[in-house]
Amino acid sequence: MQKIAIIGGGASGFFLGANLAPSFLVHIYEKATVPLQKVRASGGGRCNVTHACFDPSILTEFYPRGSRELRSIFYQFMCGDTMQWFEERKVPLKIEEDGRVFPISDNSLDVVETLIKENIKRKTQVHLQETVKAIKFENQRFKLETTQATEIFDAVVIASGSSRQMWELLKTLGHTVVAPVPSLFSFNCRDAFLKELPGTVFRNAEVQILDSSFRNAGDLLFTHRGFSGPAILVLSAWAARFLAEKKYQFQIQINFLGKTPDEILQGLKNFKKKHPQQLLTHHFPFELTKKFRKEFLKALEIPQERKYADLSNAEMQLIADFLSLKKFDIDGKITNKDEFVTAGGVDLKEIDFKNMQSKLIPNLFMLGEVLNIDAVTGGFNFQACWSEAAVLATYLNRL
């Protein structure tokens, strides 16, 4: 095997190219005008390279789909290996409090330029604005028809991300594709209560999708259009198919404080006993913004100037229930087109995870989002790309 085509100029495709032996003739095909678009956009332009999780069995827990298959991959190439790879190439990294890993520069271009330089160094031929139109497997080799030419290759690696066109091509080669649905999205909500509260953040809120077993805890963010933040994004990943079936019309229940109604009620009673003359809008026994306190008191029709001494038991129960059991109607999803992630792709039963090779066609390999693998937010999707590409590179380099 000498000539290899990599279809897709994203994280997994460029990482594979960077790690292949120089003896291979490698071509990367990317239909966009610039490569590595998701890497550029990740983390708001900072690039969330990976996550500081160094136990493969724990790492797999962050993948709603593909956790079992990825375990053997992660035992071969882990987050620490990723960090070492970039740091050896003069991209120093930092670990933030939540475990996410970024370049110290907070600039995704450091990652992008390193991947491009490594491919230039090994003389990878990168074809930009060139789309693969057809793949034919003939006489144990592959004929690729692109918008520019027709080429013959010994091996083909599909690293095209969530490309419906590529999934259709793979179907013509006999592969099964699990219908893709969005993952990692925010919730659209038209509730008037949110109108004055964009930018409000709750630490360790609990969110449950009603009429289901799906729930999650984490930071919750009010936006101009509804709800976002890790609590929502992670929940959307685990419930991706359920919510697609619901056509994104559903109800959620939010516990803003992560405490039971009884715990909140008792906190209010204790505060009332100690500070009876304090005003509700000026002081509160739990950490909530003044603006949020003002809005929820308005919603409950409790006067803003009410003193704790004048707060009835019924009113305290209303507050406790609102803060722990508030329901909202969700009317659709909100996705970031630059960081779009899907649940779905090539059926994992058709892939040999010892080397990422198709079980149906020899020397056809697949990496990244083209497979039915996805992760929650935090650098985990990139880590799957790096690890899969590294394992494939090791396999090919040994041939």
Question: Could you give the topology of this structure?
Answer:
Blueprint: E1 3-7, H1 11-19, E2 25-30, H2 37-45, E3 50-51, H3 56-59, H4 67-76, H5 79-88, E4 93-95, E5 100-103, H6 108-121, E6 125-128, E7 132-138, E8 141-146, E9 150-153, E10 155-158, H7 164-172, E11 177-183, E12 186-188, E13 201-209, E14 215-222, E15 226-228, H8 230-238, H9 240-245, E16 249-255, H10 261-274, H11 290-299, H12 313-325, E17 326-331, E18 333-334, E19 341-346, E20 351-352, E21 357-358, E22 364-366, H13 380-398
Parallel strand pairs: 1-2, 1-10, 2-6, 10-22
Antiparallel strand pairs: 3-5, 4-5, 7-8, 8-9, 11-19, 12-15, 12-18, 13-14, 13-16, 14-15, 16-17, 20-21
Helix pairs in contact: 1-6, 1-13, 2-6, 4-13, 10-12
Domain RsdA/BaiN/AoA(So)-like Rossmann fold-like: 3-393
Protein name: Flavoprotein, HI0933 family
Pfam family, one: HI0933_like_1st
What does this structure look like?
InterPro entries: BaiN-like, BaiN-like_dom_sf, FAD/NAD-bd_sf, RsdA/BaiN/AoA(So)-like_dom, RsdA/BaiN/AoA(So)_Rossmann. Residues 3-393 form the RsdA/BaiN/AoA(So)-like Rossmann fold-like domain. The protein has 399 residues and is α+β, with helices and mostly antiparallel strands. The protein folds into 2 domains: 3-182 and 338-398, 3-Layer(bba) Sandwich (FAD/NAD(P)-binding domain), CATH 3.50.50; 185-334, no CATH class. The protein has helices spanning 11-19, 37-45, 56-59, 67-76, 79-88, 108-121, 164-172, 230-238, 240-245, 261-274, 290-299, 313-325, 380-398; strands spanning 3-7, 25-30, 50-51, 93-95, 100-103, 125-128, 132-138, 141-146, 150-153, 155-158, 177-183, 186-188, 201-209, 215-222, 226-228, 249-255, 326-331, 333-334, 341-346, 351-352, 357-358, 364-366. A 7-stranded antiparallel sheet has the order 17-16-13-14-15-12-18. Strands 6-2-1-10-22 form a 5-stranded parallel sheet, covered by helices on one side. Strands 3-5-4 form a 3-stranded antiparallel sheet. α1 (11-19) packs parallel to α13 and α4 crosses α13 (380-398). The longest helix has 19 residues, at 380-398. The radius of gyration is 25 Å and the shape is elongated.
